[in-house]
Design goal:
The structure is a single chain. By secondary structure, the protein is mostly helical. It folds into 3 domains: about 35 residues, no CATH class; about 140 residues, Cytochrome Bc1 Complex, Chain D, domain 2, CATH 1.10.760.10; about 110 residues, Cytochrome c-like domain (Cytochrome Bc1 Complex, Chain D, domain 2, Orthogonal Bundle). About 50% of the residues lie in helices and about 0% in strands. The chain has 14 helices and no strands. α13 crosses α14. The longest helix has about 40 residues.
Length: about 325
């Protein structure tokens, strides 16, 4: 019987040969593609973070916001309807590290930029339950302290982002709350049309005509979603004016419905995906009702004051 002198009969050379083959295959199939430009897409609108935005991002990571908020809108109908256009690889070009997250205790923030005003963001960070009574988000009022300009400058240098001394001075003159707000407002700003799915009143004029009464559930929805800015009775707060100032008496119900559904950039968020069309119709009717009540109450108060002034003059 002849002796087998092939490599298969020699354990050590066989293991070495197998290792070399696996390593070469790994380099060819995994490492080499990373060197290709098309493996690192970048949107034309994607830009580096400014100093204050990057400092806000550092604070976002430090405070563990990524543990409850994801930053990746999946290409699913439910995600796109509620949060906006799905996340593109090209907009993640400057993300180091990625903050996609894996849990949504709170809403996804990939498209939150421009959804609310700066004042809203700061007040929400200080007192989340003022806007969403059922929220389990903790207060970050303690972030109302000076931001770290030194840390911001080190981060800009480490990532080779362009900055000026004015940028660093802006950080030094800001609080951590303001820096975090600047970062949140930047999220989604690289998408040219960072818009949510929109509705048109005419699309639902016949099938979703406004009703004459408002359900108790809609009044609860107003408290949960609107009272934080507009007040529980539409009287207004430090963030938003009274409903009587922003809703004209002769407004068309459909126009108000569209505003509630689509939202107003940097002022009011979209409610599509959060509420049904029927609920938004009722909410429009209820908001108009509160605005008219406040308008009547204001007129009555003004009239009483004038009468009191007249009476005072007569008595004199």
């Amino acid at each position: 019987m002849s002796k087998d002198n092939s490599i298969y009969s020699k354990i050590i050379p066989l293991v070495i040969a197998m290792t070399v083959v696996v390593l070469v295959g790994t380099v060819i199939t995994m490492a080499m593609p990373l060197l290709r430009d098309d493996m690192h897409p970048k949107l034309a609108s994607t830009k580096e973070y400014t100093a204050i935005e990057l400092e806000g991002r550092n604070i976002y990571q430090r405070e563990g916001c990524v543990n409850c908020h994801s930053q990746m809108v999946r290409p699913l109908t439910a995600d796109v309807v509620r949060y906006g256009d799905y996340t593109k690889a090209g907009e993640e070009f400057y993300e180091r590290p990625f903050l996609w997250g894996s849990k949504r205790t709170g809403p996804d923030l990939a498209r939150t930029g421009g959804r609310y005003s700066d004042e809203w963001q700061i007040m929400h960070l200080k007192k989340p339950q003022t806007f969403f009574p059922k929220s389990n988000m903790p207060s970050y009022a303690f972030l109302d302290r000076p931001a770290d300009a030194v840390d911001a400058e080190k981060s800009m240098k480490a990532l080779s982002y362009p900055y000026t001394q004015e940028d660093i001075d802006q950080v030094a003159n800001s609080t951590e709350l303001e820096a975090l707000t600047a970062y949140l407002q930047s999220l989604g700003s690289d998408i040219p049309d960072n818009q949510y799915v929109k509705v048109d009143y005419l699309d639902y004029e016949n099938t979703m005509a406004p009703m004459s009464t408002v359900s108790p559930e809609t009044k609860v929805a107003f408290v949960d979603n609107c009272a934080g800015c507009h007040g529980t009775a539409g009287e207004g707060t430090d963030i938003a004016a009274p409903l009587s100032d922003v809703i004209p008496a002769d407004i068309i119900d459909g126009n108000l419905f569209v505003s509630i559904a689509n939202g107003i950039p940097y002022t009011m968020p979209s409610h599509i995906g959060i509420m049904t069309k029927r609920r938004m119709w009722e909410l429009a009717l209820y908001a108009k009702e509160l605005a008219n009540k406040n308008r009547t109450a204001t007129k009555t108060t003004t009239t009483n004051r004038k009468m009191s002034a007249v009476d005072s003059g007569v008595n004199k």
